[in-house]
Write a structure and sequence with these properties.
It is built from two helices and four strands, in the order ββββαα. By secondary structure, it is an alpha+beta fold. The chain has one domain. The chain binds zinc ion.
């Protein structure tokens, strides 16, 4: 994996606060999120939980944002349901 990362999302600079708990909106269980994970499966109900702190905000201004997102800059946020 030689996926480029923007310095702001490099795990080497992370702090314990960068891992946080999100409550599952489906079953109320707890999901441990890392701050750059957009989605995680709930360990209890297997639903995919979105990271509420990720808004792709970083990618909007970071010059490496397109590489971080792994897609062309112009494509925007895909809406999947
Ligand atoms: Zn759940």
């Amino acid at each position: 994996m030689s996926h480029p990362r923007c310095p702001g999302q490099d795990m080497r600079y992370w702090k314990p606060e960068d891992i946080f708990i999100v409550t599952c909106q489906f079953c109320g269980g707890e999901i441990e999120f890392w701050k750059d994970e957009p989605v995680r499966p709930c360990p209890s109900c297997r639903e995919e939980i979105r990271n509420p702190k990720i808004d792709n905000g970083c990618a909007k201004w970071c010059q490496h944002g397109d590489e971080c997102q792994g897609r062309p800059r112009d494509e925007g946020t895909p809406e999947k349901s």
